[in-house]
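Supplementary Note 3. Input sequence used for the single-chain structure prediction.
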Amino acid sequence: MVQTATAKKLTAGIITLVALSLSLCITTFALVYSTVSLDSNLFTMGTIQLNLNDGVPVIENREIEFEPGMKVSRDFFIVNDSTDSVYYRIYFGHVDGLLADVLEITISNGDQVLYRGTARDLTRRSSIGLDDELSEGARRDLTISFYYPPEKAAYEDEFLEFIMCVDAVQAKNNPNRLFE
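The predicted structure, written as discrete structure tokens, is reproduced below.
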């Protein structure tokens, strides 16, 4: 009799274990199927790529020796080579030299001034961009001007180095224009 009661308990335990395992497998399958199955939804990946002035610097290294009162303007462009519309921002990276705090820089789109300040202040965090989207294949022609204020003549033998940078993010599903 003792063996029969033990055998019944063992059989009941095995049946319970099998039933629980089967329930766990069915629940796991249902959960995975419900999260992976997306009927009639198609996702495609795009690319984000901008052409900044064909890689040509707006001012070549040691091309101009700035003097007090001098103003130099250069045109440059951005082309959206992405597969969709983008938002973009312009900033200076790797800024060096005392003229970074002296030269007054203006970046404009026609008559619209996008930035006015120094090279040191135009960082990734304080970057500028246009309020509109740059559609696929579109080109934006911009102008950058450097002005050396006459009252800052004490910096005559100094220099400015920078790399003009542009970042872009997709415009679709990004109403807040988040770059991070």
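Strands lie at 50-52, 71-80, 86-96, 104-109, 112-117, 139-147, 161-170. The chain has one helix and seven strands.
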